[in-house]
Amino acid sequence: MNSLVKKCIVQFAFLFLVFNVSAQLNTINEQLYRPRIHFTPAANWMNDPNGMVFYKGVYHLFYQHNPGAPVWGPMHWGHATSKDLIHWKHLPIGIYPDSLGTIFSGSAVVDYNNTSGFGKGTQVPLVAIYTQHNMDGEKAGRDDYQNQSISVSLDEAKTWKTFSGNPVIKTPHLKDFRDPKVFWYAANKTWIMSLAVGPNIEFYSSPNLKIWKKESEVGGAGMGVHDGNWECPDLLSFDDHGKKVWVLIVNVNPGAPNKGSGTQYFVGDFDGHQFTPLSREAKWLDYGPDNYAGVTWSNTGARIILGGWMSNWLYANSVPTEKWRNGLTIPRDLSLVKIGKDYRVASKPIKELASIAYNNVNLKNIKLDKTFVISDTIKKATIPCRINLSLLKAQNIELVLSNNKGEQLIIGYDAKANQYFIDRTKAGRSEFYPAFAAVHTAPRFSTSAQLDMSLVIDVASVELFADGGLSVMTEIFFPTEAFSKFELRSADKTTVHHFYYTGLKSIL
Ligand code: FRU
Fold this sequence. Notes:
Strand order of the largest sheet: 23-34-25-30-31-32
Oligomer: single chain
Low-confidence stretches: 13-19
Distance between the termini: 50 Å
Mean pLDDT: 95
Bound molecules: beta-D-fructofuranose
């Protein structure tokens, strides 16, 4: 054999090995980390949920999507639909970049009154409102590369046509000018848009979704956290015994309590023109590191449902899931809770989760004088699952998920510090971002003696809703082998008054 042929064979064998090993790794990661009960893109990159709208019994989810690679890049609006917010159907890309730029975050509304004039016959227009980001303009160091545009669908969100008059709001020559979230303000018969503009949220009004007038702005130094840009706002109204209470959601990156990206909110009043916060101090919707850019579905009536991006800009581009990256949190129902004179927003996993529950087990009075191995008692305890537990007294408690490799994730309550925590320091892979291996905490806001923890556990994420959703944490993790052992322990030897386990059927 001559040396050239030999070289070729060696090179071919090497490439074959590399491809095979990386294909195997891909399959392993696919099996280990692809969420079983959360939405993830079929392939490639996802960040913020966008254009979430409920119409004719269908929940639409659009999302920041790079269809060409599993890393952030030219943004399109990926599209999926669901009838129950749990089972998702992947659909063709909703909105593509055009000469005005790529498609950044935004919202979608049902224009029932045809204010836009886009409707034809009986077809109600759905209108998407989003930021167009001109990558060339950004590269050239210009300041006019973010503008707001609209697209219309007359076939229930299947296809979209861009408006010939785009952009509908031109940049005021500010680099950060994005993420329009629009709702119908019935009292003034007008559309209201919240827009993230540098350190502020600006409000615009429009009679027809095409012509917009700036009404006011709120924010700046002294209001909330400003370690990074304000992004993805949402203005919501709740009913408190006949009184309207408004909540302004403002995502910020970085600056979250447990580092990186997070969702702050302000409770206040909105008069159709201006938002006035009751307090300029930030409250946080979720203290875990992995719930960002959350906004709510439009057209859901009194129900307020939030979906967030289950990742963090600190490491979203390098998490070890090579085929696809990142997903959606479990959608949550939001409500307003009064504690003393203070309002807080509580989040609860949507009730629809009950439809995939099986193998329910209720246990009473589990004495934790020694570690209680749940997986010994509940033989078929597997992930994904839900676990709810309650203590009559707020005492130390830990739920430990582990595997045969000695990796573990600990979710608990620390009575002395009066805080919940999730410890992912030994929960598996973190080489992609060493500070990923950390303990995160959330203050306990409830003043009740009784403590409740409700958990939604998937193969690579946990969502903690404590005390009826007053303290919330969302965390992702990457064990090298699936977690299979569940244990409860307590430094206080407390008693778990009520323990509920239910398996959740995979949606894959
Ligand atoms: C938030 C964000 C938005 C922007 C989008 C770009 O995560 O930075 O402000 O519109 O992502 O993908």
